[in-house]
Amino acid sequence: MSKRARMTLDNPYLPYPVRIEQIVTETEDGNLKTFRLVFLNPEHEEKFRYMPGQFAELSIAGKGEIPIGIASSPTERGFLSFTVNRVGVVTAHLHNMKEGDVMGVRGPLGNCYPWDEMEAKNVVIIGGGFAFTTLRSSLVYLLDPQNRSRFKDVIVVYGARSPGMLLYRDELWQWEKRDDLQMHVTVDATDDPDWKHHTGFVPTIVKKVVPSSDSSVALVCGPPVMIRNTQPVLEDLGFPPERVFLSLEMRMKCGIGMCGRCNIGDQYVCKDGPVFSLAQLKEMPPEY
Amino acid sequence: MTAYRVYSKEEWTSAVKALESHYQVFVPVKDGDFHLFGLLSEGKRPDFDFQNTHLSPKSIVYPQSERMFEYSLDGEDPDAHMLKEAPKDFSPRAIVGIRPCDALAFQRVRVNFDTPRYRDPWWVSRFESTTFVGLGCNAPEATCFCTSVGGGPFSEAGLDVLLYDLGDRFLAKVLTSKGDGLLKKALGGMEADGTLVRQAESLALKVTEAMPAVVPVDGLKDKSVLELFEAPFWEDVAFGCINCGTCTYLCPTCWCFDIQDEVLGKSGDRIRNWDSCMFPLFTLHGSGHNPRGGKVARVRQRFMHKLKYYLDKYNEGVQCSGCGRCVRSCPANIDIRQVAELMNSL
Ligand SMILES: Cc1cc2nc3c(=O)[nH]c(=O)nc-3n(C[C@H](O)[C@H](O)[C@H](O)COP(=O)(O)OP(=O)(O)OC[C@H]3O[C@@H](n4cnc5c(N)ncnc54)[C@H](O)[C@@H]3O)c2cc1C
Ligand code: SF4
Ligand code: SF4
Ligand code: FES
Question: What is the reported pTM?
Answer without folding.
Answer: 0.94
